[in-house]
Amino acid sequence: MQASTLLAALLLAASLPAAAQTDLNTQPTAPASSSQPVFMARPIDLSNYRVSSLGVDLGWGGPYGGLGFSYAHMITPNIDLNAGFGVGFGGKIGIGARYFVNPAKRVSPYLGTNISRSGRIDEFNLTLDEGLPTEEKASYTMAPSGLLHLRGGLRWQPGRVGLLGTVGYGIRFAGDPVLYATSTGMAPSTRMRNMTDLFTPGGLEISLGMSIGLGR
């Protein structure tokens, strides 16, 4: 009797570790946690530019005038939206967008487009060949005009402050906004029209801009 009881106890003791091991193997295994946190880059972190910036532009034929001021906001790492105003031969106001090819680098090409509106100019006087037999005078009024600017250039952004060199062309939505009043009562000559065209909205743009980053 004692021998059979002892044998049963030994068999029970031997079966307990096996059962425990079987239970352990059937439990789901939790993934090992890494001691290093994983950081996901935000899209805007891929750009070298501040999310918001102020711009100052100086040049000829720009969408915001000869001296223009603008605000730009990056909506993706490559694209910003901008709005501004300026002065020159008449005031200008407008909006635009730019696509930067390599915003993570210090120097990036870019393409852009703007829609702007030029202001009105009244009674501007112009004289050709003053004091000569071929002297010609004209007074003209320039009506407000809408323009589409197509632009491209390079942006250099070494830090908070960057520079943008731009060339482009402005296309008027409507016809010639200039109304002439000549001293002779005759239509202005081709030379006079060509000279006036230098000051009318549209045409070639050559400008240099400064971008000042805001915030962190």
Strand content: over 45%
Topology, number of strands: 11
Oligomer type: single chain
What is the number of helical segments per DSSP (H or I, 4+ residues)? 2
Distance between the termini: 86 Å
The percentage helix is 10-25%
Structural class: alpha+beta
Describe the largest sheet: 8 strands, antiparallel, barrel
Overview of this structure, please?
By secondary structure, this protein is of the alpha+beta class. It contains two helices and eleven strands; from the N terminus they run H-E-E-E-E-E-E-E-E-E-E-H-E. The model is unreliable at 18-22 and 38-43 (pLDDT under 50). The longest helix is centred in the first third of the chain and has 25 residues, at 2-26. It is 15% helix and 48% strand. The chain has helices at residues 2-26, 190-197, and strands spanning 52-60, 67-74, 79-87, 92-100, 107-118, 121-128, 136-142, 145-156, 161-172, 178-182, 203-214. The chain starts with a helix and ends with a strand. The protein has a single domain (44-214), classed as Porin, CATH 2.40.160. The strands form two sheets. An eight-stranded antiparallel barrel has the order 1-2-3-4-5-8-9-11. Strands 6-7-10 form a three-stranded antiparallel β-sheet, with no helix packed on it. Strand 2 (67-74) and strand 3 form a beta hairpin.
Per-chain topology:
Layout: H1 2-26, E1 52-60, E2 67-74, E3 79-87, E4 92-100, E5 107-118, E6 121-128, E7 136-142, E8 145-156, E9 161-172, E10 178-182, H2 190-197, E11 203-214
Antiparallel strand pairs: 1-2, 1-11, 2-3, 3-4, 4-5, 5-8, 6-7, 7-10, 8-9, 9-11
